[in-house]
Structures are given as C-alpha cells and as structure tokens.
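User: Second chain of the day. Same drill as before.
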Amino acid sequence: MKVDRSWTTGLLVGVIALTTGGWLINQGGTAGAGESRRLLDEIHRLIAEHFVDEVSPDELYRMAIDGMLENLGDPYTTFLEPRDSEDLRFTTTGNYGGLGVRIEPKDGWITVVQVLPNSPAVREGLEVGDRIIEVEGESAEDWSVDRAVNTLRGERGAGVNLTIARVGVDRPLAIHIVRDVIQVRQAQGFMLDDRIGYATLRGFSRGAKEELVETLDGLVEGGAGGLILDLRRNPGGLLPAGIEITDLFLDRGREVVETRSRVADQNYVFTAPSRDRYADVPLVVVVDGLSASASEIVAGALQDHDRAVIVGTTTFGKGSVQTLYHLSGNNSMKVTTARWYTPVGRSITKDFDRESALRELAASAVAVSGEPVAAPSEPEEREEFVTEGGRTVYGGGGITPDLVVYRDTLSTNEQELRRLATRSGAIPRNIVFRWAVEYANDHDFNEGFAVTQAMRDEIWDALTAAGAEVERDLFDGSQTYVDWLIADELAGSEFGEVPQLRSRVTRDAQVQAALDLLRDADSPETLLAIAARAAEERAAEGTPGGAPGGDR
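Assistant: Same format as last time:
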C-alpha cells in the first residue's frame, strides 16, 4: 500500500551516511534462528578449537559478519561498531566534539587549513598554516587525515595537548585545547553580480533548511532575481531536511520522492507541505558525480517538475534506502531495505563495481583544484521518462543534467608541471599554501587582489627551493593553474572560507555556465527555454559541456 506523506508525519526518520549518501531509517530488530545458525555455530567452534593457528572467537565472528555482508554484493549494507557513532552523529546533526579546524596532509604533516569562528581552536590561538607535529607527546609525522580526525575529535570538555610548528616562529609551540561541540555551517552564499545570487549547501543535517532559508532570503532581499544552488560534493543528510529543502521550491502537494520496499510500512509518497517560497525566481542547481542521495532527491524532484535547470555532470547514482538496526554492545547495522524514486517514477541507482571504478579513475582528467574529473563517455541505454512539462529525462545511472558542463581541467603543460614537481617532492598546492601563509603575514591587500608577476616569480623560487625538477618555460606555460592556486590559497589564508569560495566560483566553468543562463532569464519558464537552446548549441558543436583534458 502506498501512503501520501509530507515530511511532518514523523513516521519515517531518516539520515544519510556521508560516506555513501545512503538513507537510514532508525529501527530495532533481532536475527532469526534455525538450522543454518546452528551450523554456523558448529563451524565457529571447530575453527576456534582445531584450526592450526589460534584465532579468537571475536575475530571469527567478525570474519563471519564481513563475509556475509561482502557476499550480499551491496556496499551500503554495513556493520557499524561503536566508534562509528561519532561520524553518524555528525551526519545527523552537523555537530561533533572537537577543536574546530579543517585539516589536510601537507608535506608529511597534518596542517591546519581553516579555523572555524567561535571555536576552541580560535580561543587558543591556532592559525591557518600551523603544522601539528605532536599530539599528547606522540609524533604526528605522516599521520593520515582519518587518524588525525579520530584522535582530535572527542567528548566536549575533554582536553588535548598539541605541539605545533608555525610560520615565522623558530621553536615549536605547546597548546592545550579543551574540546567543545562544533557546529559546521551547512549553507553559505553571496551575490555573483547585481542580480544573481549563489548559495552552496554541503549537507542535509538538522538546521540545514534554516541556514539555507537565511542565506537565500538574504540574497533575494539583496536584489537576486535568479539563484544558483550548488550541491556539488554534497553526499546527503537527514531525510526531513532533504524534503524541507525541496519544499522551498515546490508548491504544496507536489510529490518529492517515493520509497518502495517489500516491507509494507516503508512504502511512502512524500509530498511538499507548503508553498514555493521563491516562486517565479529562476533556479539553477549545480551537481557533479559526488552529489548523492538527498542531493539527487532535490535535483530529481526539481527537474521532474520543471522547476529548475540542472547544470554540471551526472550525479552519483545512489537510489537505495538503508534501515539502521541497533544491536547489542552499542553496535548497529545498516541494511538496504528499499529503493527510492523521483516524482515521475525514475530510479537513478547506478550499478558499481570496483574494477570499472578504477578504470574510470585512471582515465580521468585533473581539475585545477587537483580533483579527478571523469572523462566523457557515450550515454548508455537508459529508460526515458517525461517531466511535467514534457521534457525527456532518464532513469538509471544518476541524474543527468539538462546542460552538461565539465569543470576546467589542467592543460598538458599544467599536468606535466604538477607531475614533475610532485615526483620531486614539491607538491605545488602545498608549496603555494606555505607561501600564501607567509605572504599574508607580511603584506596588506584587499579581497579583490590581482595575481601579479611578482607573486608568480616567488612561487617559482619556492618550487625550485623545494627541489622541483621543472623548467621555467613549463612553469610559465602553466600560468592559469599557477594563478588559480595563488588566488585560492591567498584568499583562504587571509580572508577565510567565504572569500575563498567566492574566489573559486569566479573561476569555475560550471558556475559560470549557470550564471550565463540566468542573466537572460526572467522566469523559470524562460530559463528552461534558454537552457534547451544552450544544450542544442553545445551538441551541435560536438562538445557537450566541454570535454575535460587536453590543451586550452
């Protein structure tokens, strides 16, 4: 039986795991018994007692669990140990216990690349560029990000002792920081010009709707006659938040998403509970291959109802539902129990296998930011559907944008510069980051600064000093890449997250394509027509969105 629901029914409480974009429904459950269970116990006992090498009973049970889940062939059905609860809490609430810093590995050391406002890190004086060289007296050299995150996060009120190395300070600094609850802001926004507003949403945790409404209302009140909603690299979040955010752009009663399961009480049709808050405002949603689950729900529903134009590259393709079952010992388990469908009945689930994923990664080009960009491929055979306005959309394999636009990628020269410098141990982004921290300490400049030849020369000197085995001609022929790194790292070091984001989007091909569409659109209807013409023009040119890779 299908039941129409709005998100306010409270009958389905869902969260989406950051690592998979999977929907989770909190429930309890017990395993059944029978002959197979007795057989498993017998095998367990025989191995524990007679196998040539000693294996603990706990290890054997965990092997059995891992083998069982692996043979299901579903990467989203997973066993969660108690230590996973912190990540789950962050997914659900957007909060975690920690220091309030964003970290990345640079030159073998965990390095602070952002300090959140009003955080313990700010109060104790941590700065962008600080290298964490010891934690509780233990060297942090060559630590992975995962190890650092697991070590630095903790309960509110618990202290941690760090030793840091700081630019311009000739001896290590000892800092004691007391952890606190860190609230990660989900939405950020600003005006791109005098009439187009830009907002990015990084997750769908509790409070995401309020943050996004605050951001979008501010843009509209500031004169925005068109909006860009950036859902790239957004892996999902809470189900109610996803429906709330979709509801901002749909009229009351419009379908948002349907879940289908062989379990009767998980069959739902969720509908928008209120009016379109931004009615008549043209909207572009920007997506990529890491836009998953709740992001795909938003993009799919707005595409099916012809409410927004989708720009970018095909989304992740996560269309299944996981139920969270609580087990003994504070363990839990996610089990795939349903699939979800867009308003016109599309399943967007993409089939994955490890070997094809590795082949795709190997064939990928590299964005100026260093991230892989999938190579374009011929569209596979996919089921066709029709939107509310009669447009053709596709099921399977993620949400295909109305206008495919690839990110800017490195030219042949820039790829070679990056490869040779990295092989020499002088990773360009790390070199520019360290330079930017020092430059920001020594110079005064405004947010609208221009990259100068003097800055490029200093980067060249820093690269060669770090041992980069590259020719000057190759460096000079990679100016777009070098300038992007300089602008990005200087904006982040001196002005913080939002100015850095603003600097990035001004150099972002996908956002600029969205901006071009909106400049001539005075309604959602005219936006759709403009996007259709743009797609036809790109198809006629034989470059749907500009294929990544190669020389400019």
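Confidence is low (pLDDT under 50) at residues 1-32, 546-551.

User: Great, on to the next one.
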